UniProtKB/TrEMBL annotation:
Matches recorded under PANTHER family: CARBOHYDRATE TRANSPORT ATP-BINDING PROTEIN MG119-RELATED (PTHR43790), SUGAR ABC TRANSPORTER ATP-BINDING PROTEIN (PTHR43790:SF8)
Keyword annotations from UniProtKB, A to Z: ATP-binding, Nucleotide-binding
Signal peptide (from-to): none
Gene Ontology terms for molecular function: ATP binding; ATP hydrolysis activity
Keyword flag ATP-binding: yes
Ranges for region Disordered: 251-278
Residue span(s) of domain ABC transporter: 5-247
InterPro entries: AAA+_ATPase, ABC_carbohydrate_import_ATPase, ABC_transporter-like_ATP-bd, P-loop_NTPase
Keyword ATP-binding tagged: yes
Organism of provenance: Actinomadura rubrisoli
Cross-referenced Pfam families: ABC_tran
Record-given protein name: Sugar ABC transporter ATP-binding protein
């Protein structure tokens, strides 16, 4: 089956810093993929490129097998892609509802709507309802996002992305500011979203969360895909090993007999770049 979203050989530098050095990624409909890697591995950069925030220096992006070039966030959104950015990307001075409906404002019905009047009550109600699904209770609809707690803000960003995503939701550390209960709700929501056919990419440093929800795991290291694992039976040692590079060393034995054993373990043709599939 053609993947929903693919990235091949993505390169991105900021001045002298090579954030991505030929990164590959793929995603199918209705799966949760955990994208993991050490600090600075390039995860957020890859997400920004796949959600239209940044343009790659090189590489190809395909949606449903067709090459695309996201010139803007709006364009990625038109492909059904929504993102919870690591920095949340909320407008601090606006209310949660205004953030929710930024660029998607709901007009009043009838003549007032045709004159451009907004249906603020409907937008407030919808934003409140979506936030409450995540256990985020907003004391007032009319306060600016800047006055909310870190966890509430994170809830607003997650709820907003999930509300609008038709095909893919990227969540870059969506639970970093959340307590145990709210984290559990976000993980439940990820499963619900996946079951509705939308693919979810979860970026987190919490390996428990990864093991709890991921159907597949992609590991990024030094700006490239270092490994990928399918199934939940991957051990913590393997994940950490792939993130730090220790596993590569394990799988690069000095003699030929060892090399055979290693290729059995990776068992994927063309995995010379260290990519593994289980
Ligand atoms: N706007 C920028 N300007 C300069 N360097 C940047 C910029 N954005 C990212 N980088 C650099 O690119 C590299 C990859 O950063 P990125 O934020 O993608 O990593 P990450 O995997 O998301 O890390 P973390 O787990 O800490 O969030 C880092 O070395 C970072 O310093
Ligand atoms: Mg990041």
């Amino acid at each position: 089956m053609t993947p929903l979203l693919e990235a091949h050989g993505i390169e991105k530098s900021y001045g002298h810093v090579e954030a991505l050095r030929g990164a590959d990624f793929s995603l199918s409909a209705g799966e949760v993929v955990a994208l993991i890697g050490d600090n600075g591995a390039g995860k957020s950069t890859l997400v920004k490129i796949l959600s239209g925030v940044e343009a790659p220096d090189a590489g190809r992006i395909l949606v449903d097998g067709n090459p695309v070039r996201f010139e803007s966030v709006e364009q990625a959104r038109r492909s059904g892609i929504e993102t919870v950015h690591q920095d949340l990307a909320l407008c601090a001075d606006l209310t949660p509802a205004a953030n929710f409906f930024l660029g998607r404002e709901v007009l009043r019905s009838g003549l007032l709507g045709r004159l451009g009047f907004l249906d603020n009550a409907a937008m407030r109600a919808r934003a409140r309802q979506e936030c409450e699904r995540l256990g985020v209770r907003l004391k007032s609809d009319s306060v600016a996002v800047s006055t909310l707690s870190g966890g509430q803000r994170q809830g607003v960003a997650v709820a907003r992305a999930v509300t609008w995503a038709r095909r893919v939701v990227f969540m870059d550390e969506p639970t970093a500011a959340l307590g145990v209960v709210q984290t559990g709700r976000v993980l439940d929501l990820i499963r619900t979203v996946r079951d509705s056919g939308v693919a979810v990419v979860l970026i987190t440093h919490n390996m428990q969360d990864v093991k709890a929800v991921a159907d597949r795991i992609e590991v990024l290291r030094l700006g490239r895909r270092a490994a990928r694992f399918s199934g939940a039976d991957v051990s913590m040692e393997e994940l950490v090993g792939a993130m730090t590079g220790a596993l590569e060393a394990d799988l690069a034995p000095p003699d030929a007999a060892g090399a055979d054993a290693a290729s059995e373990k990776t068992s994927e043709p063309g995995s010379a770049d260290g990519e593994q599939k289980r």
